[in-house]
Backbone:
């Protein structure tokens, strides 16, 4: 009897289990102008915040800029690019703080919580015209990265964003450079797939310029502002490990907007996967030399 009851309960559990999520819809192709818009918008936001720069050997930028009067509509615009309950709650909370500040309350608390760096990246993508199927706007970097990974798996030839380990790609303008802010950071973007859908503290910056020895990328909520971070790179442009105490870099997200057919060269799977990766690297007419494994000794 007990065995029969257990079997019935198991069947009932199977019958009520939620179905697997549907595969992402095929992404659309975008013209090359969208990449220029992304870079232009990101750099304009950085300039409007005062052009702060952080990085090895540089003094730490002053904090508190997000609480300034001129910052209120900027961060509000970032959050409005994220259509979810967390963004709505962030806006409601900080509108109340803003109203209280205007009425004579304490200054400096507006936009201090929650962190808005993922909202900033989402805003840049939306303002440039990148739609939800191509970039999932989110209040958390982890969740828009989950969507990027799903789309890259489901539509490898058409995915507008493709993840790479640090040794597999030297960042280019328009790419995302992502770090894990947790106590036990991910060693690779592939490690994230096993926990997809769970929150993990992360941070991603948008690359503006890259070359031998340095990668310059803009991100939100660094020193309470949109700040440019200078990352150390090797002579070939590949990112170097960050100093102890800094969030560990774990992925470069290749931006292929404007480089897919019919606007760019046909994407083809490389002959071998990226070094240490189960995900195949992609080659393009522009970047095939950099999309494969990092040359030994570089």
Residues:
């Amino acid at each position: 009897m007990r065995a029969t009851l257990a079997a019935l309960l198991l069947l009932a559990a199977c019958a009520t289990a939620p179905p697997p999520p549907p595969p992402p819809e095929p992404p659309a192709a975008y013209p090359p102008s969208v990449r220029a818009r992304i870079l232009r918008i990101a750099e304009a936001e950085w300039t409007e915040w005062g052009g702060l720069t952080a990085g090895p050997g540089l003094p730490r930028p002053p904090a508190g800029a997000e609480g300034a009067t001129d910052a209120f509509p900027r961060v509000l615009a970032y959050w409005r690019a994220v259509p979810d309950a967390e963004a709505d709650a962030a806006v409601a909370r900080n509108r109340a703080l803003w109203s209280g500040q205007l009425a004579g309350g304490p200054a400096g608390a507006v936009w201090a919580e929650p962190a808005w760096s993922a909202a900033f990246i989402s805003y840049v993508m939306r303002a440039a015209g990148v739609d939800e199927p191509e970039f999932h706007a989110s209040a958390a970097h982890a969740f828009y990265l989950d969507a990027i990974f799903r789309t890259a798996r489901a539509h490898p030839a058409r995915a507008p964003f493709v993840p790479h380990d640090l040794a597999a790609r030297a960042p280019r303008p328009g790419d995302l450079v992502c770090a894990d802010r947790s106590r036990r950071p991910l060693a690779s973007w592939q490690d994230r797939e096993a926990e997809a859908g769970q929150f993990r503290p992360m941070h991603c910056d948008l690359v503006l310029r890259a070359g031998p020895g340095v990668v310059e990328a803009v991100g939100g909520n660094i020193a309470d502002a949109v700040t440019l971070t200078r990352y150390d790179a090797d002579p070939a442009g590949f990112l170097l490990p960050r100093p102890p105490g800094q969030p560990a870099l774990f992925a470069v997200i290749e931006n292929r907007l404007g480089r897919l057919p019919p606007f760019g060269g046909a994407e083809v799977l490389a002959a071998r996967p990226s070094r240490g990766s189960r995900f195949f690297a992609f080659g393009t007419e522009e970047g095939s030399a950099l999309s494969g494994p990092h040359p030994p000794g570089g």
Summary: Residues 1-18, 266-298 have pLDDT under 50 and may be disordered.
